[in-house]
Amino acid sequence: MGVVGIQEALQMAQSEGLDLVEVSSSSTPPVCRILDYGKFKYQQTRKGRTFT
Q1: Could you read off the pLDDT of 16-39 as tens digits, one per residue?
Q2: What radius of gyration do the chain's Cα atoms show?
Q3: pTM above 0.85, yes or no
């Protein structure tokens, strides 16, 4: 998608009924994805990873 401002990204996520999730805070700018956080957390748990 490219570099998008935080407000625009939040609006995009909210308009789709999804969540804005930061997946990599160590990069500049931080990498975020628009997704269903509950589903993402469930899938990661099934893979054996733990996220809080």
Answers
A1: 999 999 989 898 989 999 999 999
A2: 12
A3: no
Token pair of 7 as six digits: 């407000």
In 3D space, the residue among 23, 41, 44 whose CA is nearest the CA of residue 32 turns out to be 23
What b-and-e string marks burial along 16-33, b requiring 16 or more CB atoms within 10 Å of the CB?
Answer: eebbbbeeeeeeeeeebb
Fold of 6-46: Ubiquitin-like (UB roll) (3.10.20)
Helices (H), 1-52: 6-15, 37-46
Task: Say how far apart CA 43 and CA 2 lie, in whole Å.
Answer: 25
